[in-house]
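Priority: medium. Attachment 1 of 2:
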C-alpha cells in the first residue's frame, strides 16, 4: 500500500498510560505508529530515509496529556504528502515530516491495539493498548464495522 494521502480516525479510552494504538510498517523502512507514552499521544512517522544517512525521515509528534483518564478521546490524523494534521479532541496541530519523501509505503498489515512481534529490540519494549476503541476508520474503510461483520481476520497479538 503506497499512499500519498491518508485519513485515520478513531476514539479511545483507557486507564493505562502506555500502549500502542496502531502500527504499520513497510519493507522500505516506512512506518506509522500511534501510541500512548506517559499518558500523552505520540505519533511516530517515517516516509523514508536513505542508507547514506543524508535523508532522515523519522518524525515524532506529541500532543495531549492525562489521556489515561478513562474518558473518550477522539483522534484524527490527516496526511497529504509530508503535511500532517493531528487532531486530538478538536485541538489541531499542523506539522511537516522530516525527509524528502511524500508517500507512505506500508505492507498489507496494519495492527490496531498493539504491534506484531518482529524480533526487533525496539518493538519488544512497547506495550499493547489496553482499553476501548471505537469508530476506527482508515482511508474510508470502517475497520470497526468490518471487524463486527467478520470481514477482517482479527487476531490476538
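Attachment 2 of 2:
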Amino acid at each position: 500500500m503506497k499512499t500519498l494521502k491518508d485519513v485515520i480516525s478513531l476514539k479511545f479510552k483507557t486507564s493505562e498510560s502506555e500502549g500502542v494504538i496502531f502500527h504499520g510498517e513497510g519493507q522500505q523502512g516506512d512506518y506509522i505508529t500511534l501510541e500512548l507514552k506517559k499518558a500523552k499521544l505520540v505519533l511516530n512517522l517515517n516516509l523514508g530515509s536513505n542508507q547514506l544517512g543524508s535523508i532522515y525521515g523519522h518524525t515524532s509528534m506529541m500532543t495531549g496529556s492525562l489521556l489515561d483518564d478513562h474518558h473518550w478521546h477522539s483522534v484524527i490524523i490527516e496526511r497529504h504528502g509530508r503535511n500532517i494534521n493531528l487532531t486530538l479532541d478538536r485541538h489541531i496541530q499542523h506539522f511537516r515530516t522530516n525527509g524528502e519523501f511524500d508517500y507512505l509505503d506500508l505492507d498489507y498489515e496494519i495492527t490496531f491495539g498493539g504491534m506484531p512481534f518482529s524480533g526487533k529490540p525496539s518493538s519488544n519494549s512497547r506495550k499493547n493498548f489496553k482499553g476501548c476503541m471505537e469508530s476506527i476508520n482508515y482511508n474510508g474503510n470502517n475497520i470497526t464495522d468490518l471487524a463486527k461483520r467478520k470481514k477482517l481476520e482479527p487476531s490476538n497479538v
